[in-house]
Amino acid sequence: MAVDGNWNIVMSTPMGERKASLTLKNAGGTLTGTLGADGNSTEIFDGTTSGDDVAWKTSVTNPMPLTLAFTGKVSGDAISGEMGIGPMGSFPFTGTRA
Fold it and tell me: What is the per-residue DSSP string for 36-77?
């Protein structure tokens, strides 16, 4: 699996579609990187990879303080999955390699 690199993702949220940039690096099953949106960037944490499966969390402050929990799958130059927003439920995200 080649998750390493830069991704352009689109998250479907209760407030409409949100675009973000994602940088990921896999080191022995541990996933690190950053998520950037609206001029802000934040480190991801609790990142893991297993085969084509990926998972990570990130904390955001806009539009309100939240922890987003992503789970997804990489397929070539595409990534997709679900983004959990705590009590608000889960919403899909999709992306392509930048």
Answer: EETTEEEEEEEEEEETTEEEEEEEE-SSS-EEEEEEEEEETT
What pLDDT, in 10s, does the model give residues 27-85? 999 999 999 988 889 999 999 999 999 999 999 887 778 899 999 999 999 999 999 99
- d(C-alpha 72, C-alpha 57), whole Å: 12
Phi-psi region of 60 (alpha: psi -120 to 50; beta: other; left: phi over 0): beta
pTM here is 0.92
Q: Scanning the structure block, which residue is given the tokens 């969390």?
A: 57
Ramachandran category for residue 86: left, alpha or beta (phi over 0 → left; psi -120 to 50 → alpha) = left
